[in-house]
Structure formats: C-alpha cells, structure tokens
Write a structure and sequence with these properties.
Layout lengths: L3 E8 L15 E2 L2 E2 H11 L5 E6 L4 H11 L4 E6 L4 H9 L5 E8 L7 H11 L4 E7 L6 E2 L5 E3 L7 E10 H9 L8 H7 L5 E4 L10 H12 L3
C-alpha cells in the first residue's frame, strides 16, 4: 500500500549569488537555515518520510545536522545533480511506499505546516498542486534585443513557490521524461498534459538567494511570521 507521504527537501544549489556564503548552513536566528526548513516537515503530521538532497560538499554536514536535531523522519540524505531535475530524481529514488510527494526548496525556511497541508488537500483534485502568490508588479515580455513585445494581464500571473505536491506516479513519470533545464517540477508535469492546481502561498515564504534575502529571513523569523 502506497499510503505514505514523502517530502524532498532540495538544497543542492551552488548559491552563486550569496557572495561566498553557504546559504543552506548559514546561521539564521541561532540555527542553520536548513534546520528551519526541515523542522517544519519533521513536525508536520501529514509527512511520513523526508529525503534531503545536498551538494556533495555538504553531505557530511547534513548528516551531522540530522543527528544533532534527531530528525526521525529523515530517512535519506543524498547527493544532488548539476541541475534541479537530477537532484529531485535522486531524492525520489530514496522514498519508499509513498503515494504523495511534497517537493520543497531547502532555501525557503519560512514555510508553514499549513502550506503543506493545504497543498496535499488541493492536490487530491487533479493529482498536482503548487503554492504560488499573485504577481504584484507589472510584467513585460521582451524580444531577444530587449524591446517590449507584450504586457500580459497581471491578474492572470502568479509567482511560483514551493511546496509543490504531486501524486507519486505523476511526478515519477515527469522525471522519467524530464527536461534537464526545467526550473521547477510543475513545468515537467505541465508538459505531460496534467492539470495543476494553484493554491495560495505566502509572500513571507521567500527563497533565500542573496545576502539581502538572508537578512530579510532573519527579520521575518524573529518577528514570528
């Protein structure tokens, strides 16, 4: 029976915009950034297993962190690939007997249990659901030489986040046929023709990609948001 729910925490990126800071283990209000992310999933009753995907240089540090915090749901820590798609594929191979998969960026430490639970609920409709927030800026489309060629209606635009939730067979099929340059898992599922439900994420659910983001995350964490 594939009645378990597995989570893949993807944290194998190189963090090239962090000016030499290893963002995944950067201190955030007294503990490593990754610890904030994983502990939300560890405490969430809806999650049965967790796999953490890290860069090869961080594997030992990840194992030490899991032991230090006694994460009982972390059943695997594996090496990621050059691209996100390979990292997620590596994580999928370590999850056993899971009917549902929740994929989350390790660099989004302000995720809430509620986002995980809502995502699992919304995914039941079509087998796939992703967190997103409405775009607040006007977006322009450009030509290759940077001339405006269109302005899509803002009310139809969403900024995609994680968690992204999929029925196991759907995401497994998507990764068998993966475009290695896809920037998120929903894109892979979309290309197979599946319908994906958008559900409301949070503007506080930021992804730490720059030192400024890390400072903002510190403010949000200390503010209890």
């Amino acid at each position: 029976m594939h009645n378990k729910t597995g989570a893949i925490i993807v944290a194998a990126g190189k963090g090239e915009r962090m000016r030499g800071i290893d963002k995944i283990f950067a201190p955030l209000a007294g503990k490593p950034l990754l610890a904030w992310t994983v502990e939300v999933f560890e405490k969430c009753p809806a999650i049965d297993q967790i796999v953490i995907v890290l860069g090869e240089h961080n594997i030992e540090a990840g194992k030490q962190l899991a032991a230090e915090y006694n994460w009982e749901k972390v059943t695997g820590i594996c090496i990621g690939g050059e691209k996100r798609t390979q990292s997620v594929s590596n994580g999928l191979k370590l999850l056993k007997d899971c009917g549902w998969i929740v994929i989350h960026d390790g660099a989004r430490p302000l995720v809430k249990e509620s986002l995980i639970k809502i995502g699992l609920s919304e995914a039941k409709e079509t087998g796939a659901a992703i967190a997103a927030v409405p775009v607040t800026d006007t977006i322009k489309m450009s030509s290759d030489d940077n001339f405006i060629i269109g302005t899509p209606p803002r009310e139809k635009l969403w900024a995609v986040q994680t968690p992204q939730v999929f029925r196991f067979d759907i995401i497994e099929e998507a990764h068998r046929n993966a475009d290695k340059n896809a920037t998120d898992d929903a894109t892979l599922v979309e290309k197979l023709g599946y319908t994906i439900k958008l559900y409301s994420g949070s503007y506080n659910n930021i992804k730490v990609t720059t030192p400024v983001d890390l400072s903002l995350a510190e403010i949000l964490v200390k503010g209890g948001t």
